[in-house]
Amino acid sequence: MPTEIFRESLRTYRRAAVGWMIGLAAFLTLNVATYPAVKGQTEYDKLFQDMPDALLAAFGIDRSLSVTSPPGYLVSQVFGFILPLLFVVLAVALASRSIAGEEEQGT
Question: What's the pTM value of the predicted model, to 2 decimals?
Fold first, then answer.
């Protein structure tokens, strides 16, 4: 029974899912494409070293990673704050759509 509900949800939201996947892929591609502008810029590392620990923790940035390295750049730009926020927005949108959609259809 739960698999049937999951399949029905996938069928119902397939256009939205494809749109979100394309949007996330474009977002990640844009962030990876802008990395060469940051590569080798030691000023960014100095800037992040001067920030308080609480601010770095809020954005998921680890002091041991250099912001100008590929992993540090992706953590600071994508995985630390924006991507989790996008997944929260997706969850809220899917939840509200599932309730409102059922009301609109009368089911």
Answer: 0.67
